[in-house]
Amino acid sequence: MQNNLKIKVCGMRQQENIEALTALGPDYMGFIFYSKSPRFAGGFLTPKIIKQIPESIKKTGVFVNLKNQDILEICKNLSLNTVQLHGKESPEQCRAIKNLGLEVIKAFSLNSMEEIDQIMAYEEVCDYFLFDTPTRKYGGSGKKFDWSLLKALPSEKPFFLSGGIEENDAETLIEDCPVSPFAVDINSKFEIEPGLKNIESIERFIKTIRKQS
């Protein structure tokens, strides 16, 4: 397992919650711009709120099957520097966004080892992969991702491990994951309600992970 495992907290939208999380110093903070998500950040965030987050935390917009123009408009307005594409975006779309200087995370929902091969078309057009549990709602289900699928991973691209990660996983995640992730992505298992995180639980998780990695 690599040193300095990165931590991404996704599904943020309330100002006080964002400020409290910022104090914990996660590596990435995610904001969901998918209108069907219960964590939809539209209408909650303002440029002023985002500007209070230091540059050491990468501000990440999560998008699902949105046009490039709309993605770029949101990123520019809120000064986001990372784009997570969580839908059926093509390699060409990933490349176009990456060529504009934005960091790109391409998410894949995997059910079986047979689906692993689909990611290779994206090898050169994104900065990171993210592996999540398949759901109809594009993430945030709380269902555990089958980490054993990563044994068949044909790529050496650094990746985010997502899908139902909870506080108790902090003790064993580093040993249990068959391939070393670049980062872990946490969301629904750390919530009081959709879009409102339990800061105390996240703090314990971060401390445990960073103590080990």
UniProtKB/TrEMBL annotation:
Pfam families: PRAI. It is an enzyme of class 5 (isomerase). GO terms for molecular function: phosphoribosylanthranilate isomerase activity. The lineage of its organism: Bacteria, Pseudomonadati, Bacteroidota, Bacteroidia, Marinilabiliales. Belongs to the TrpF family. Its EC number is 5.3.1.24. CDD domains: PRAI. Keywords: Amino-acid biosynthesis, Aromatic amino acid biosynthesis, Isomerase, Tryptophan biosynthesis. GO terms for biological process: L-tryptophan biosynthetic process. The keyword Amino-acid biosynthesis applies. Pathway: Amino-acid biosynthesis; L-tryptophan biosynthesis; L-tryptophan from chorismate: step 3/5. It catalyses: N-(5-phospho-beta-D-ribosyl)anthranilate = 1-(2-carboxyphenylamino)-1-deoxy-D-ribulose 5-phosphate. Residues 8-207 form the N-(5'phosphoribosyl) anthranilate isomerase (PRAI) domain. PANTHER family: N-(5'-PHOSPHORIBOSYL)ANTHRANILATE ISOMERASE. It comes from Marinilabilia rubra. The keyword Amino-acid biosynthesis applies. This is N-(5'-phosphoribosyl)anthranilate isomerase.
